[in-house]
Amino acid sequence: MGGMRKLGSRVSIGVAPPNQAIQSEIIVAMGRALKNLRKLKSEYADLDLANTKKWHRLTDEFN
After folding, report:
1. Mean pLDDT of the region 31-35
2. How many domains does the chain have?
3. Are 7 and 22 in contact (CB under 8 A)?
4. CB-based contacts of 50: which residues, under 8 Å, 6+ apart?
5. Residue 24 in contact with residue 3, Cβ under 8 Å?
6. Residue range 1-27: average pLDDT?
7. Stated pTM of the model
8. How far apart are CA 53 and CA 59, in angstroms?
């Protein structure tokens, strides 16, 4: 295995199997998405998003 594999905007060089490298990239992307959701929640706190069913569904999928 190993070699170079382009993942998103990065080039990963290593010995990890491609599946593991892709899984790591997905985990990083999910972390960024959750951070963005939290940021939006704080920016729009006056809308009380935390008490909506949609908000709970979105955040539960990332936890």
Report:
1. 89
2. 1
3. yes
4. 41
5. no
6. 67
7. 0.44
8. 10
